Amino acid sequence: MKLRKIFFKLTIVILISSFCVSTYAQNRNSINWTKDGNGYYQILDGEIVLFTLPENERKIIMGRDLLTPKGAGQSLNIRDFVLSADGSKALLYTNSKKVWRYQTRGDYWLADLKTNTLKQLGKDKPASSLMFAKFSPDDSKVAYVSGHNLYVEDLASGSIKALTTDGTDRLINGTFDWVYEEEFDCRDGFRWSPDGTSIAYWQLDARKIKNFLMINNTDSIYPFTIPVEYPKVGENPSACKIGIVNISTAQTNWVQIPGDNIQHYIPRMAWVPNTADIILQQLNREQNTSKLFVANAQTGAVTNILTETDKAWIDAAPEWQWINNGKEFIWVSEKDGWRHTYRISKDGKKETLITKGDYDVIQSTLVDEKNNTFYFMASPTNATQKYLYKTKLDGKGKLEMVTPSILPGTHSYDISPNGIFASHTYTNVNVRPITEWMKMTTGNPFTMEGSITNQLARVQPPKNKVEFFKVKTEDGTELDAWMKKPDNFDQTKKYPVVFYVYGEPASQTVKDTYGTGNNAEYVGDMAKDGYIYISVENRGAPAPKGREFRKSIYKNIGILNSKDQADAAKKILEWPFVDKDRVAVWGWSGGGSSTLNLMFQHPEIYKTGIAIAAVGNQLTYDNIYQERYMGSPLTTKEVYIKGSPITYAKNLMGNLLYVHGTGDDNVHYQNAEMLINELIKNKKVFQLMSYPNRTHAINEGSGTSEHLALTYTKFLHEYCPPGAK
User: Fold this and answer.
1) Which domain-ending residue is among 87, 122, 147?
2) What is the per-residue burial (b if ≥16 Cβ within 10 Å, else e) of 523-534?
3) Cβ atoms within 10 A of the Cβ of 448, count?
């Protein structure tokens, strides 16, 4: 139900270990830094180029000749790559294919820069079937997953050994099932040990997960079903366990983690640096108790080093970052009411709060042990923005703002491993993203010509800017919001208003970034046509406003967010230039659910609604997401019913357009049909647009996105006409 899969992406706190730098070539979202941090690699015009900083001098390290297989007419189309630790070899990822949401399977090639040779790995495996290939610590082997089994390939001899042989479509080794990927952001499911003698991996047993059958009626004369293993609310998840397989013997020892492996989740696991121990996070079924375990791979001893509970939920942890030669790690917790970072000893007996104060750490950026400095993103005074801050790693420092305060908006930094250089990107609601290269040691750009300040001087601000404002609910809670007024706005006239909503814990809509205020589903220009466009951030959104703001929606999805949105709308409708008879609301996924609830629960406010890919009945959604935020349906089924749009469908008074893809493996078309039945039973007239075999994104097939936008726009024009009156 997460709109982040389409338009937004929830910022996940990612801590990249200096001891365990990514060694697989897949889906890189950041700069591919050199090991020493004094340069970076880039795929450019079909070649791999090294840029040395600060001069940005370029050198081709892998040209087209090397990247062209023998007998092939052209070089490989490389999606991503990674170099071995000594820089003599490279893993190349190409020919990628989608697994659920992401391009996580494909082909891997090994380029040897010393011998200038290229060879394909896993040649006996089906095309585009290899996943997460990565070098062993000594670079002599590469491990990968294919067909839900783990393999290791010796680079000298080319021999391939199966480390697991029991993998099937439902017994999953080294990667994850649908719901782990969707809700825990889990894809890569194995880790090399520091000494390279073994691999720790996840095994998920989805054999008892019921199939949800989607029906394809269009691709053959006789329809056929498409099964997806999908654990609905109240249904048991896949059993999960951690195995440690010996590379020489291919024998697996299973970690004896306390508790039922069906009624617990294991969203995170890693090796402790320079040891034979692994560390893992276990969440209980309701995800309100988090336990950290350290397990010895040789003896099997398991120790619970840290336990945390919450009255609502606890998020899956960021990846571990180890400091103090592996004796401590960085940890994130909301236990004091704010998302803060701590340094925890390996045995869990000592913890030190690093970040202090009434603010949230949005994202860790760099741990600079040499200079006792912790860099992170935060925004203590404005939850719509994001800036770089720093403090002392030992917890004895004060909060220091690194980003120049003269640049209000949203900033991001990709800092080199040595903490010397950074790529700094700046944007705000009226400025497209601008990037500069800078020295962290001085805080200055390499050259003034390429500086953000210099580039800003050439930016032409829009004539019609997006405005931010605040609005209070009936109980006095202050909510952030933005508004884009019509062109040539005349406050003596009345205009229609269109509310854009999401409303659930997976996405934030009110952000000071470029693109805010735009509507990709509208054909034309809303401001030019005479619409007021608004979005309000209700409680429960993942905004950096403290634990209470985010988690007050626990067991209240569909209720609290609807009330906050309606309270805000009532205040906005008091403005003299808003036409109370022309009020529309729309959203996608969780926003579609919010749209339905607003149309049904507050028909006196919202006259027109467009709900796309909405969950109409919370009892139909997956267990990890819905149980996290609504509790177990075995004890709280009434809150699921109370928060579901289908419960209030009988109250529809306005004009509703409901849009859904019949091939949606995330929010099933079942939701549409259940809602349709309820609307029919209550003699409620509405419009329906079904897209055959389209997924949650509704973008597959020629003309689909354009058709959806045309349908959206025509409906809005007809039932909420634009223009001043």
Assistant:
1) 147
2) eeebbebbbbbb
3) 10
